[in-house]
């Protein structure tokens, strides 16, 4: 087993030991192996013929539950958006496909894609109100969506059959199912659903290991940090809701043509809770864990006829037990944590070399970032008061001042987190005042944070590659299908990430999850991630805080490298000796106002700076 201890540095250190860790590694490798996957698929396809029709039907339910769980896995596990109303999407898929086939004479092969699209469109629409709320409010809002859907189904008698339900949907269980002219019995339908499930799981794994999956995780952990490297939270969430809706709709449509009867009760709150429990107990983020969980929660109750009366009590107990004992679910118990770069990309990048010199802004006019009379008020408090400064390419400007003097607020204004009350921010000829954070990052003004904001369970390498997100041009579909162009482009950026890892002295820890590493390493990784976003201006908010002397030396060298690349650098810090060796000029703030602008020697003699900030330190310097 692996045990975790806290070092003085605050990092969690994994202690390798024999036994279950090796077992987990072995199991993970086995499950990920294409031969194993093919053999399992073949076994199920052929072996199903030996099973009773009842068992085959339950197995079809398992597969549908596995697809449904993936919709929660994507929305909640990856993108961090809770949903208590997923039965609504499941129901949209089921009713849409059922009605199209039964009443409109559609072929199932056409009705299912339409149902999936409708559920995706509903998910996309839901993302707009969902984007305005979070946490418990989001849970309530999605619960409301599920309830509205349930009521519509109950009341819309003419279309859905209301409380009496919709019987006679062409289905495998009723032996009335025909797809593209082929009559399908329960066994045929199981085999079809099995192939669809295999495809969904394959695409889901691809998506998780693509720029899309990494972006989902980035907004999950910190929307502000994601925005700072050019990942827009709004459109990323829209995509997550749409794809999640599509997966739930697919599960619903497959369900409709399995059972043949649709009643509103099948799409009420218990269905939403059931899929959440399956996903959480399976382990959010673990595809294989959720397949096992879907099996557990579907097969056992059906077979043993347990839960029938006690379903909710059983779910509650299992969930509580699982969260207490297995916070990472079955997936965390049996498998290694999932990884977020495709092995093919890793292999391809290993054969490439990248020169960090290519990070130098190329073929572009040397432009400065100009802050003109920026004021930022919070109610009656003036946090930044008419500040003007200029950041020039190849120069390092320090921004110093006492605590609460407005340094971080100024960085927040420049990086698009706050819209200033007055004043302008220009980069070259372009007015970037009031642009959102991801638009500012796209304008190549990138920042780091006082408290490093990385994706905790990503490795150092995965965190760095996230920095290149906005530069990746291949489509989400190409990423999910793992097309060669997408692999080649990712590999190219990964090779550059390797070069930056080397520059930042992080190569040795590249494969370690970032939350197992000391604070200083995380800070360096955050600076590296910002660098991979190819900034022309970089704003570093106290990057040296909490670093050891050795780490500070490493950081100073990295900042010098960035200067040599021609970046305009703003550096907030309190260590005067650290700054003295590095910076070209200093701006001092006090109570939001700029009280000094010039070189560091002049600053140390300036009476106003001594009075407001340096105090005794200046006299000893
Ligand atoms: N979102 C906010 N709402 C209200 N007041 C804020 C907000 N952000 C900052 N402030 C206030 O603005 C002032 C400047 O804060 P800011 O964090 O910019 O200072 P700082 O110089 O970065 O301080 P430190 O060195 O401690 O990080 C403080 O009085 C702070 O309380």
CATH architecture descriptor of the largest domain: 3-Layer(aba) Sandwich
Sheet of most strands: 6 strands, mixed
Percent helix: 55-70%
| Chemical compounds bound to the protein | adenosine-5'-triphosphate
> Low-confidence parts, pLDDT < 50 over ≥5 residues?
1-18
List the helices and strands and how they pair.
Layout: E1 3-6, E2 12-15, H1 20-32, H2 34-47, H3 53-78, H4 86-102, H5 108-130, H6 135-155, H7 157-160, E3 177-179, E4 182-184, H8 186-208, H9 211-221, H10 223-228, H11 233-259, H12 269-282, H13 287-304, H14 311-325, H15 329-334, H16 343-350, E5 369-378, E6 381-391, E7 396-400, H17 407-414, E8 422-427, E9 430-431, H18 437-442, E10 445-447, H19 460-467, H20 476-481, H21 484-503, H22 519-532, E11 537-541, H23 549-564, E12 568-572, H24 576-582, E13 585-590, E14 593-598, H25 600-605, H26 607-614, H27 616-620
Parallel strand pairs: 7-12, 7-13, 10-11, 11-12
Antiparallel strand pairs: 1-2, 3-4, 5-6, 5-8, 8-9, 13-14
Adenosine-5'-triphosphate is lined by residues 378, 381, 383, 401, 403-409, 450.
GO molecular function: ATP binding; ATP hydrolysis activity; branched-chain amino acid transmembrane transporter activity
Protein name: Branched-chain amino acid ABC transporter ATP-binding protein/permease
Subcellular location: Cell membrane
